[in-house]
Amino acid sequence: MKAATVPAPPPRLELVERLGRGGMAEAWRARWRAGPAVEEVCVKRARPGASPAARAALFTEAGILARIHHPNVVGFRGVERSPEGEPLLVLDLVEGADLGRLIEAARGSGEPFAPGVVAHVARELCAALAGAQTGLPGGVVHRDVTPHNVLVAASGRLRLADFGLARAPSAALNAEPRRLAGKPRYLAPEQIRGCALDPRADLHAVGLLAYELSSCRRPFHDQSAAEALASLRAGRAPALIDSLRGIPPGLASALRALVDPAPARRPADAVAAARVLEPWADADAGRASLARAAATARARSSRPPHSYVGPAAPRARWTLEPYW
Fold first, then answer.
1. N or C terminus of the chain with fewer C-beta within 10 Å?
2. What is the pLDDT of residue 321?
3. Residue 144: active-site member
4. 115-145 burial, b for 16+ CB within 10 Å, e for fewer?
């Protein structure tokens, strides 16, 4: 008598489409079967051929994200492991566009974001950073708050993403070999100098991002990356805020405080920074403006949000056991 054939179990995780690619990792749209239902999620994995250090960094990121629960931070769902032992971070899938694409579209139209929208974005980012602090003893330094790491959902809600460079501001972080981590045009002076960091370094980045929203220009856009680093190190970021036109003096003062070269003169923490920005933020107009901008950016694009234009990658279908 012929033995009955046992059907193969459905794949627990299936990579569908690559959404983005960075120096060490890449993000994928995926289908994830965590129970009876199949969900669409984002999976972050190390790039093929990445070093063991890059894979270890994913575990560090997972450990940080697992402790953060805030509506303005991309949600963490868990960690899976490929048959080869590769860590796979499972995250919320944000359908929308990143803030970098919205700024590019605004730059093309010649219409910067209104002051109330700028203040709303800065305040929401401060709320995200404050939420990250509450989940980790001693807080966390994101170290990479840039337009492309801020996702805008179709509803207009902002979500801070990519904690791959994030570290706790502990003795271990401050004892690390001094390496320049992050995008050159968004670094605080103390990052460039290799000094000990605390969460106020991220507030400096929020101020620079607000400048970019207000002007549709990258910080020190007329300088090379090396020259921009020198300008930031020399503490010239407040001059960027002074160059803005058409924003209320009170908002300009709040942004100038965020980019003060001395951390001690910035707001004490992200909660204090959000409080300073509150009078100038227009939440309703901000969400509506961002939702329209995200829809327009997606409609104008011939490729999926955050997609990497390159050779097609093979689709992976894995039957897995939970890593955590």
1. N
2. 47
3. yes
4. bbbbbbbbbbbbbbbbbbbebbeebbbbbbb
